[in-house]
Amino acid sequence: MAVSGADERPVGIDELLERVREGYERIGPEEAYAAARSGEAVLVDIRYAALRERDGLIPGALVVERNELEWRLDPQGSHRLPEATGHDLRVVVICNEGYASSLAAASLHTLGLSRATDLIGGFQAWRAAGLPVTP
After folding, report:
1. Do 124 and 103 form a contact (C-beta atoms < 8 A)?
2. What is the mean pLDDT of the chain?
3. 50, 69, 87, 127: which sits with the fewest CB atoms below 10 Å from its CB?
4. Is the predicted pLDDT of residue 135 greater than 70, yes or no?
């Protein structure tokens, strides 16, 4: 999705987030948990190491640093993970609070992963919902 062209005014981050989020439907913690448990979706944790160490991990989630996300999930890429099986893969990107994950999901859409989404409220919403977390 082209967010700003040569003839458009610059946008701030709040407007950018609003624009990219219009391109897909975000999901909440319970829906993400159910989708992962049923095998319908792959959860991908993009939080940096210090946050994972401080707050814990979501069991079964793939940990992929944000700066490696596109390389690891591109089904055509030479550095893809085994889980990156095709463009129809449903990926739920999880950051700490649900902001960086929106930009990451939009980037995955650009790569053709049309079912990519992100977790509303991020890891903090997952934990607040009482869903499983391991230290």
Report:
1. no
2. 95
3. 50
4. yes
Query: CA 40 to CA 28: how far, in whole Å?
Result: 15
Sign of CA dihedral 120, 74, 89, 107: positive
Nearest CA-CA partner of 114 in 81, 89, 131: 89
From 120, 104, 106, select the one nearest 48 (Cα to Cα). 104
* Whole-angstrom distance, CA of residue 104 vs CA of residue 99: 9
pLDDT at 6 (0 to 100): 61
Amino acid (one-letter) located at 24? Y
Assess contact for 117 and 24: CB atoms under 8 A.
yes
Rounded average pLDDT over 14-29: 97
Convert 41-66 to b/e letters by CB count within 10 Å (16 or more is b): bbbbbbbeeebbeebebbeebbebeb
